[in-house]
Amino acid sequence: MKHLSNFGKAVAAGAFAVAMSTAAMAADGLNFPNLTYRTGPFASTGTPIMNGQRDYMLMLNERDGGIGGMPIDYIECETGYNTNKGVECYEKTKGKALVTQPWSTGITLQVMPRTNVDRIPILAPGYGFSPMSDGDTFAWAFNPPVSYWDGAYMILDYIAGGDMSSLKGKKIVLLHLDHPFGKEPIPLLEKLAEIYDFRLVPVPVGLKEMQNQSAQWLQIRRERPDNVVMWGWGAMNAGAITEAVKTRYPMENFIGVWWSGSDADLQNVGAKAKGYKSVSFNAPGNFPVLEDIRKYVVSKGNSKIKSEAEMDTIFYQRGIIFSMILAEAAKTAQDRFGENNINAEQLRWGLENLDITASRLEELGMKDMIPPLKMTCDNHTGHTGAWMLEWNGEEFVQASDLLTPNRELIKPLELEKAADYAKNNAPWPDRGDLACN
Amino acid sequence: MFYRTSGQFKTTYESDQALFPIKQDMVLLVVILAVMYVIFPMFASEFTYKALLVPVLIYSLASLGLNILTGYAGQLSLGTAGFMGVGAYACYKITTIFPEVNIIIALFLSGFFSAAVGVAFGLPSLRIKGFYLAIATLASQFFLVWLFEKWAWLYNYNSSGAIEVRTMDIFGLVVTGPNASPMVQYYFVLGIVSVVTLAVINLTRGRYGRTWKAVRDMDIAAELVGINLMRAKLSAFAVSSYIVGIAGALMVFFWKGAAEPNLFDIPMSFQIVFIAIIGGLGSVMGNFLGAILILALPVVLSLLPELLGLSIGSATMEHVNVMVVGSLIIMFLIVEPHGLARFWALIREKLIIWPFPH
């Protein structure tokens, strides 16, 4: 630290000026930042979701003037899935933010302890970790509409055809990203393997081997499993599907989690991947809400989508759903507190007491797009259930009735792991003065 | 004029060998320290601490560690992030197995673990040199990240697979965890970085520094004049990994608060190598300049459009950022291949003789 040059000082001084002024510049309205990743290694899967999220919020602004008359101040902060950038974005946006959407398990883990102190709800729809469902431990965290453990159960339920005892003696491979996200279902699957007496063979795929999985698929060929369940993300999905096609693995026995069900991953192999399945809490289709987005956002050239065909993809529509959940929570809070300019704590209440009924979904133009969602104090996930989607060679189509997780079986595990988390991060604050309803 | 050295006579050996033989250097250092210790905390927001000051300090420290190995002892290493990981995981295990241990002690102890691992992976340096050694350290990088993922004991069998930091205090002052004030954490990191930097400056001026430089410049000649190559190289690995390990522990405990294994993957190793090269190999100050350029500049740049009232999408800005910082790196390397530290040295030389060119 002998000499910090003048240049360095100038930079630092500039940084101050900038840091000071950003706080004062945010516009009025409901401030919903989103920590996006439109760049970096996972951009191809992130971009459609972020486009869906953004377009729904812009549509609400154009069509209804926001939520309850308050315009939405929708902000994107780019992380590129990089956890360092995640800290930066969280600190940058938290001043006025009503919510934080970290969009990566790594960033979620870093941000979660801070949200208790900063008192900002954290919305991690479809990701985060399963114990977040325990609202008494994670008062500020929400991961609707289903957790990974729910997903793992529902996939097995589908394989078993509704009768879990028929899994006895089967061999199931879990092809997973070797990363906290990919390892997430293992505790539950191990427990289920014990109860229902099937064999679980985890096959990890390292972050560096995502695109070249020949070794893993050689192992799968040797194992001759009845089913392959995939917990993949980004480039891993396309890699696995191409390799499965190459090794002639029967596609109908190959099932992915919802993040392994992007249209873009399957379009390359097209008809050869016919029969591949992915569990998803949103069903594809042509919903009235899409017409509104087309009319108010896309036709005006305000959307970032490349072509209108993107609006038919599962991931874009999933983005719409995530924004809808947030918007409905804001509305719930506005109705409860009788004021439109809600704060972060009120939005937290709104998320906790969110009840999106089937008739409300119809009003929103999303009938049967997702199952009705209801969250409560001790249920921050909703556990709505999901559908199995099947790739017909050109697109995903719905292939099952609503599957639902066996909550009696999963919940004890959630409580146990939530308690572990609280112990590791001691002293972890409990619900404290936050009212339940 | 400002840097006039005439009239500063050295009358004793002590004054000739002082840390700062020129008075102006001393003044400059005092000014910088005053800015870091007094002025910054008066104005900085939480964002400034978390996104600018603390990361710059931590990366500077890691780069300082690497610089001992690569810049002073001439041993190329691509395994820095792995050694940082060893420090972080060691600190995590120490603080969970012995919860009553003071975090400062845990921090300095965890450095010994990374030093031991560093020495083990430094053994091949006795036989291989240059790019071949870089490949050997690359192996350590891959192996360590693999180990962090597979060895569940390291992260206490957490279901998240990550290490998480609980709240810890020093004599009642909360320094880690979500309740720690960013200012306290900044002071803590700044204090440790100051102490280690001072130690490194003295170490590199002394006997060890000179043996390392001799080995770097020509190892056969160094051996011929009686330097024990094994001791010189392994001590460089040990000291380097020790500092890098502390930097890793600081990163997780005082900045991020949680870390997944792949944080310590190769991109971070490269980032630190870039900081060391752009800052200047074989210099202490260069690490700080390099970290400012690589880490702080992108953050400041990404804030610019909003400040100027332009509305540029966040993702677009990220692309612009990569381009600007990339071209700046190339520009600096063309203008001064020996790094920013050398750049400053030239300016200083010019200042000393200014306003007369000779």
Structure description:
The complex is a heterodimer of chains A (437) and B (358). Chain A is α/β, with parallel strands linked by helices and 437 residues long. Helix content of chain A is 43%, strand content 13%. Chain A has 15 helices and 13 strands. In chain A, helix 2 crosses helix 11 and helix 12 crosses helix 13. The longest helix of chain A is centred in the C-terminal third of the chain and has 24 residues. The N terminus of chain A is likely disordered. In chain B, the strands form two sheets. In chain B, strands 1-4 form a two-stranded antiparallel sheet. A two-stranded antiparallel ribbon of chain B has the order 2-3. Chain B starts with 12 loop residues before the first helix and ends in a 5-residue tail after the last helix.
Provide the β-strand percentage band of chain A: 5-15%
- Rg of chain A, Cα atoms, Å: 22 Å
Shape of chain A: globular
Total strands of chain A = 13
Q: What is the arithmetic mean of pLDDT of chain A? A: 87
Percent helix of chain B, as a range, is over 70%
Helix content of chain A: 40-55%
Q: Show unreliable segments of chain B.
A: none
* Biggest β-sheet strands, sense, barrel of chain A: 7 strands, mixed
Largest interface: A-B, 62 and 73 residues
Q: Which value, in Å, is the CA radius of gyration of chain B?
A: 21 Å
Strand content of chain B: under 5%
Q: Give me the secondary-structure category of chain B.
A: mainly alpha
Low-confidence parts of chain A lasting 5 or more residues at pLDDT below 50?
1-27
